[in-house]
Structure formats: structure tokens, C-alpha cells
Design a protein that fits this description.
Elements (H helix, E strand, L loop, with lengths): L27 H23 L7 H10 L2 H16 L3 H22 L2 H9 L7 H16 L6 H31 L2 E3 L10 H13 L5 E3 L16 H13 L5 H18 L5 H6 L7 H30 L8 H13 L3 H5 L4 H17 L2 E4 L11 E6 L5 E10 L9 E6 L10 E8 L12 H18 L15 H12 L5 H7 L11 H10 L4 H19 L3 H5 L5 H15 L16 H4 L9 H18 L9 H14 L9 H9 L6 H7 L6
Parallel strand pairs: 5-7
Antiparallel strand pairs: 1-2, 3-4, 4-5, 6-7
Helix pairs in contact: 1-2, 1-3, 1-4, 1-5, 4-7, 7-10, 12-13, 12-20, 15-16, 15-18, 16-17, 17-24, 20-22, 24-27
Keywords: Hydrolase, Metal-binding, Metalloprotease, Protease, Zinc
Family: Belongs to the peptidase M3 family.
InterPro entries: M3A_DCP, MetalloPept_cat_dom_sf, Neurolysin/TOP_dom2, Pept_M3A_M3B, Pept_M3A_M3B_dom
Length: 686
């Protein structure tokens, strides 16, 4: 289908398949032109609903509200996606201008007394269970956004929200700038010994792109950088590790402390003891105490396991192993004890095969869908590809954009995002994107992935499936529009298929010979994945504990905080000590000044959700095994039947069903923590 060049690419209804944006026709100037008009149109739509003289009905109130703001949604989807994948000073400036306007617009909507009254006056149609759930959800959202506050309190709330939006944007921009500024410059190639030729060439190219001689090791989002596994020079490892931890220290300390204070004050205005209580009320955990209890229950066992692992590494190194050295010596131990050579292993994981013959193949086995490349459709960057997803009966379900390569202006990490969401009310189908930051080989060869990168491809495609297989009426409940501690469940469960025997043998073929990965390596992968769980659990729990500690402060406690770098570090130390996670040389996965999830993303007081979702994932995947759908030589009919159940009960329902009910319906009972404890080596911890 061809675009209508006479229509506006943001203000008019989309003209490409599935509402794919006309990326070639959108730039910063187009957005600047469109945004004020899109905002005006949404204001007018809200006023038309709120001031309607007709009696409130479901159609003229709730469904009209659900259908409003499409133009604004297209503008913000384009801008915020571009800020993640291709940030520029111009786009940052645009965001700085419109984010406060968006915050004020949102506050005005949720404190509109006439609109709130109309919502309270209607009921969902008989038999519309999804509608009844939506009605409860909207009324609760209005209350949580200040609809019941006095006008004076509403004005204070709006001021807080506007300031928080500005600070969140500043945090992300500061982190992006520091990520580039603190990339490690190496003049001597011998200091990069251990890295693959492709990785060294990429470092040389990164330096050239910055107009520098030598080599540049760009920084990834977490504390631990993947290159630490391979670098043989302890000095280079230490310098890279230190560079990772310097991000945001000079600028983000004061930003994050101000955010913590404002979040605490906002929670108090709305009647909550802390920001954590406010956030987690809407999550499946239900209470901050439940989330906190899970972390504190598991922390002692994780710390003990990490301490034992560190001792083994020191014995192997015959020296003290620092936090910078830990990944290197862990890889050496796995090579010795499990005959697992990370560099050899990568030869079996070329990106294209992992994607097509791994992630897409597994989805076809489970859900009957096919994913086909669409070179006739353009994405937003030459590095990104567009794929069409079709159901077993040939129905076109939506589009997937894959954007896997690192580049200047792209923030680190990996994520899934949406340009268009599925809704039967709106007649829309999904356009979702999977984004990573893999270093592209400079010689044009295909990237060879680490085990972590293979897992991430499957993880993000799990989020993609959640969006692509959505089948709901109301856009509020579409796809990944669910609580944080539920949204990670489908994505984390999908990781399991990366190492399922039938799947991995289909995609893991040697890049040079085409040989299927041998059984000895599969055994080594399985055995080696059990080692290092103490480190993995400890660094994750450390970050989750820090997040909850910041956001469990009352306004009085928050106001007493200092905002210097030393103050922030001291706060982190106290939180880790209280949780029993002060393991020597084990650092949190994220320190506060570069904790993008909670200070520039949507995970404040919610980073615990990955572990909460892993309880569901571990137990849920056991359900696939019990149904004969995983493991050695499963029957195709059993795989498809289990996939159909998971699709029908979880993936397709988005937020339209009660989450505990959905899980219990799939599993046949409520969740059980035992499979997670066994996986993590934490049996006996709770």
C-alpha cells in the first residue's frame, strides 16, 4: 500500500499498512508543526466529551475518551521513540519544550471535574466484562491523578508533575551525554588483548567517529560491561569498570534527589505514605511490603552464594578478584569446569539465525504465526528492518521493527516499544519495535552474539509478542499496557525458548561450517548457567533494593537528604547494608546516577518487578514442560496446544483480565515460588 503524499504524516490517519508511520516524511520540523495542533485537537475532543449536553452514555463518554487523542499519540510515539534510538540536540530541545506541556495537559484531563462526573455516571454494557474492568480502572486512575483533591492541591500536584517531567528528561539527557563522554579511550592495541578482532575493529571505528586516534570502548547501560569478560589486561578492565560508574555522578546526583523528594511529596498529597506505596498499589504485588519482603527474603541466600562464588574465583586467580575482574574470572572458571569457551560459543550464534531460526521459529511452533521481512516498507533508520507478522490462517496481525545495532545518539540497553497499538474499538493493529545496541562488525560480517545477547533477543521478542498478539477492544488494555510486574512475565518466559533443545538445535549452527551446535556445548551451557547465580541475583537485588529504598521515604525523610555524589553513595551503602547485600566486590546492576529505569523510565519503585515476574516465568515454564511442550522431542500438537493456551489466556488479553486469574487459568493453580528458588539456587531462602 502506498502513502498518500497529500496527507499529513502525523495529523491525518495513517495511510501505510497497519498504521506504520511514514518515517521518510517525518522530521523535527514536521513534529514542531504538528504538535501544537495535535494538542489542541485533543483538548477540543476532551471538552466535547466533558461538556456534552446529552445524557452520559458508555459510547459518548468512555468510548469517546478511549478514541480521543490519536494525533497526539502519533506525535509522542515518534518523538519518544526517536529520543531513544536517534537522539540529537534538536530532538532533546523539542522534548524539553513539549514535555512540560504534555504534563500539564495530562493533569488538566485527570482533574477535569465535568469529565470525571460523566465517567462516574455511566456503567459498562451488560456482558462487557472488559468494559466493566476499564470503567473501574479509569475511575481509579482519575482518583490517583488528583481528581478528588482540592483545587489548591491540584495546582500543587500539577506543578510537581511538570517539574518531574523536566527532571526525568534531564536525567536521561545527562546520562546519554556521560555515556559518550566516559567511553574508555585506549591508545595501545595490546591493552585490548582478549577482545575479538571484530570488537577491536568496532572500537577503532568508534574512535574514528569521534575524531580520535586509537580505540574507544563505548559504555553499555549496566554497571558490568560485557567486554570485562574477555579483556585480559587488569588495568583496562579496571579503567572500563570505573568509567561505567562515573556516569551521572557530576550531574544526576542532584537531579535524582530532587525527584525522590517530589515523588514523596506527591504520594503524600494523594494520601499515600510513600511513593512505593502509591506505585505498587497498582501492581500485581499489591503492596510495597510484599515487594520489599520478597527482596529481603532472598537477599541473604543470594549474598551467601555470591560470597562462595567469589571465593572460588579468587582461588582460580590465586589473587584477590575485584568487581572489575569478576566477569573475567567467572568466564575462566566456566571454561575450566564446564569446558565452555565463550568465544567458541559465539560462532554458533550469528544474529540472523538467532532471530529467524530461533525467536521466530519458536513463535511459529507455539502460536502458528509467521514473520516475513518486508523490504518494501521503510523503518526510521537504515539499520532497522520491517517484518510482517501473519497468523496461522494468513491474517496479517501487525508489523515488527527490529533495530539491533549500536550507534551514536542511541541509548544503551534493550527495549520494546510501540508506534501503534491493537484495539478492536479503534480498528487498529500493532506496530512494535525491538531495540538493542549490539556492536556491528566493521568488516560487514554478521554479528556473533554472546549468551546474554541471545537471551535478550528472545526477551525483547517476548515483549513484541505481547503487543503483536493482543486481542482487546479498548486501547487502554492493549498489549503491554499492564503493570510492570506483569509486563516482564511474557518476555522472561520467552527467554526459556532460547535454550530449549528443539529450538536451539534449529538456530545454533556454526557460522563457518553450518554444523549444528554439538551436545557437549549444550550440556556445558546448561551446567554453566547454574554457576554465577549468586552474582546475578546479588547484583539484581542490589539495584532493586536501592530503587525501593529511595522510594520508601516519607516526605520528611526525603527532605533530609543531601544531594551531593557522596550523599547518594552513602544512601546506597546504607540500603545495601540493611538488606544484607554488602558483598565485597559485588556492585548493584545499576547505581543511582545511571539508573535509567527508575529516574528516566517508568520503573520507579518497580525494578523489583523483574524478579516478581521471574516467579511467574519459572513456574509458568514448568507448566509448558508438564504439558509436554518443552524439552527433548516434544510432540508438535502438545507444543501448539500449550502455546494456544498461553496466547489465549495471557498474551492476547493485555490488561483486560485479572492477572492472578489469568495465571491460575494457564497454570491450573496459583503461582508457586519453588521453581524460581530452584533455578536461582536459593532453595531454602524463604
Amino acid at each position: 500500500m502506498h502513502a498518500d503524499s497529500s496527507s499529513h504524516p502525523l495529523l491525518d490517519p495513517p495511510t501505510l499498512e497497519h498504521g506504520l508511520p511514514r518515517f521518510a516524511d517525518i522530521d523535527d520540523d514536521v513534529l514542531r508543526e504538528a504538535f501544537p495542533e495535535a494538542l489542541r485537537r485533543h483538548r477540543d475532543q476532551i471538552r466535547e466529551i466533558a461538556d456534552n449536553v446529552e445524557e452520559p452514555t458508555w459510547e459518548n463518554t468512555v468510548e469517546a475518551l478511549e478514541a480521543s487523542g490519536r494525533e497526539l499519540a502519533r506525535c509522542t510515539a515518534w518523538l519518544f521513540n526517536m529520543l531513544g534510538t536517534d537522539s540529537t540536540e534538536s530532538r532533546q530541545a523539542i522534548a524539553g519544550e513539549i514535555i512540560p506541556e504534555l504534563s500539564a495537559h495530562s493533569d488538566a484531563l485527570y482533574t477535569d471535574a465535568a469529565l470525571h462526573a460523566r465517567l462516574g455516571a455511566v456503567t459498562a454494557p451488560d456482558g462487557d466484562a472488559e468494559g466493566a474492568r476499564l470503567h473501574r480502572h479509569l475511575l481509579r486512575r482519575f482518583a490517583r491523578r488528583g481528581a478528588d483533591l482540592t483545587p489548591e492541591a491540584q495546582r500543587e500536584l500539577a506543578s510537581i508533575n511538570e517539574r518531574l517531567s523536566v527532571l526525568s528528561d534531564a536525567f536521561g539527557n545527562n546520562l546519554l551525554a556521560d555515556t559518550r563522554a566516559h567511553a574508555l579511550h585506549v591508545a595501545d592495541a595490546t591493552k585490548l588483548d582478549g577482545l575479538s578482532p571484530a570488537r577491536i575493529n568496532a572500537a577503532r571505528s568508534a574512535a574514528e567517529a569521534e575524531g580520535r586516534d586509537g580505540y574507544l570502548l563505548t559504555l553499555e547501560l549496566p554497571t558490568v560491561q560485557s567486554a570485562l569478560t574477555d579483556l585480559t589486561d587488569p588495568g583496562t578492565r579496571a579503567a572500563l569498570h570505573e568509567a561505567s560508574q562515573r556516569r551521572g555522578v557530576g550531574r544526576n546526583s542532584s537531579v535524582l534527589v530532587e525527584m525522590v523528594k517530589l515523588r514523596a511529596r506527591r504520594a503524600a498529597l494523594l494520601g499515600y505514605a510513600t511513593h512505593a506505596d502509591y506505585v505498587i498499589e497498582e501492581e500485581t504485588a499489591g503492596t510495597a511490603d510484599a515487594a520489599r519482603g520478597m527482596l529481603t527474603d532472598l537477599a541473604p541466600a543470594a549474598a551467601a552464594n555470591a560470597t562462595a562464588e567469589h571465593k572460588l574465583l579468587c582461588e582460580l586467580a590465586d589473587a584477590e578478584v575485584t568487581s572489575a575482574d569478576w566477569p573475567y574470572w567467572e568466564a575462566k572458571l566456566k571454561a575450566r569446569d564446564y569446558e565452555l569457551d565463550e568465544e567458541e560459543l559465539r560462532r554458533y550464534f550469528p544474529l540472523g539465525r538467532v532471530l529467524r531460526d530461533g525467536a521466530f521459529f519458536a513463535a511459529n511452533r507455539l502460536y502458528g504465526i509467521t514473520v516475513t521481512e518486508r523490504p518494501d516498507l521503510d523503518a526510521y533508520h537504515p539499520d532497522a528492518d520491517v517484518w510482517e507478522v501473519r497468523d496461522a490462517d494468513g491474517t496479517s496481525l501487525g508489523l515488527l521493527i527490529t533495530d539491533y545495532f549500536a550507534r551514536p545518539g542511541k541509548r544503551g540497553g534493550a527495549w520494546m516499544t510501540s508506534f501503534t497499538e491493537q484495539s478492536r474499538l479503534l480498528g487498529t493493529t500493532p506496530v512494535v519495535a525491538n531495540v538493542m545496541s549490539i556492536v556491528r562488525p566493521t568488516d560487514g560480517s554478521e554479528p556473533l552474539l554472546t549468551l546474554d545477547e541471545v537471551t535478550t533477543v528472545f526477551h525483547e521478542f517476548g515483549h513484541g509478542l505481547h503487543g503483536l498478539l493482543s486481542d482487546v477492544r479498548y486501547p487502554t488494555f492493549s498489549g503491554t499496557n499492564v503493570p510492570r510486574d506483569w509486563v516482564e512475565f511474557p518476555s522472561q518466559l520467552n527467554e526459556n525458548w532460547a535454550f530449549d533443545p528443539a529450538v536451539i538445535r534449529n538456530y545454533a549452527r556454526h557460522v563457518d561450517t553450518g554444523e549444528v551446535i554439538p551436545g557437549r556445548l549444550l550440556t556445558a551451557i546448561s551446567d554453566a548457567r547454574q554457576f554465577g547465580q549468586g552474582f546475578a541475583a546479588g547484583e539484581y537485588l542490589g539495584a532493586a533494593v536501592i530503587d525501593l529504598a529511595w522510594h520508601s521515604l516519607t516526605p520528611e525523610q526525603a527532605d533530609a537528604l543531601g544531594d551531593g555524589a557522596d550523599d547518594v553513595e552513602a544512601f546506597e551503602t546504607r540500603a545495601l547494608e540493611e538488606a544484607g547485600l554488602m558483598v565485597e566486590h559485588l556492585l548493584p546492576r545499576y547505581r543511582s546516577t545511571y539508573f535509567n529505569h527508575v529516574f528516566a523510565g517508568g520503573y520507579s519503585a518497580g525494578y523489583y518487578s523483574y524478579l516478581w515476574a521471574e516467579v511467574l516465568d519459572a513456574d509458568g515454564f514448568d507448566g509448558f514442560i508438564e504439558q509436554g511442550a518443552a524439552g527433548e522431542d516434544p510432540a508438535p500438537a502438545a507444543v501448539r496446544a500449550a502455546g494456544r493456551r498461553f496466547r489465549d489466556l495471557v498474551l492476547s488479553r493485555g490488561g483486560a483480565e485479572d492477572f492472578e486469574t489469568s495465571f491460575a487459568a494457564f497454570r491450573g493453580r496459583p503461582k508457586d515460588v519453588a521453581p524460581l528458588l530452584a533455578r536461582r539456587g536459593l532453595t531454602g531462602a524463604v
